[in-house]
Structures are given as structure tokens and as C-alpha cells.
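Hello, quick one for you while I still have it in my head. No rush at all, and the record is pasted right below.
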Amino acid sequence: MSLKPVSTDYVSPSLDRITSLLKNLRTLNSSSAVLIARYPDVITCLRLRAPTQDVFVLFNPRVSSEDEQVASLTFCISLQEIAQRLCDVFPQFSTVKHSCSKNAPDTCLFPGPLITTMGRNPLLCPV
């Protein structure tokens, strides 16, 4: 199984926006993932479609403190709890100011994350 891009969006993170995004993942007929890219990290929230209940898996490679040098992996069945967990990560991102190098405009830092939804739904995936 492989994931294909379904959509890409550039938004500021908020609980309502992330909750809406995760609800949209539930409309896909297969397991799906959201990749949230914010230089230098990529946070992934995977929705595993199961016969009885979906499971959300959040992978956060960010180090939360100098004492805690490990990435975190969170399993959750509650959409609201996983949305809140994602929002809790974003205050760390909000301190980055927009800055672009004039010589290398492709190395810009922006204050909002890039969100890409991945899935296997043939109705939403480009052929």
C-alpha cells in the first residue's frame, strides 16, 4: 500500500482547523495521513482505518526539552484528543518569524505550517 497526495493547504494551526482536517480524513475509504511540515520538522498524523474503530497515530520528531531527546509516538482513538495534541505542538512553531534569503528564496521560513493530506481514495487522488 502506498499513499498518494490528496490535497495541500497552507494554514495557521488552530483547534477548529485541525479538527476539521481530521474529520475529513474519516471520509476517505482507506487509511490516510496528514503531514504537517514546518522547517525543520515534519509531524505526521496517521489515521488507521479499522473495522470497529479508527486509530490515530501521531509521530512528533520534535525534542520537547534538552532532557528529553526522544521523538514521541502517540496512539489515540479520540479525534478531539489527537487534535488537541497536535495543537499543543504548534506553540513551539509560532516563535519563527517569516524570513527569506534574497539569494535563495526556496529556503524561506514561514509562520504557518504546510499541511498535506495523503490517502488512497481514487476519487480524490490525481491519476
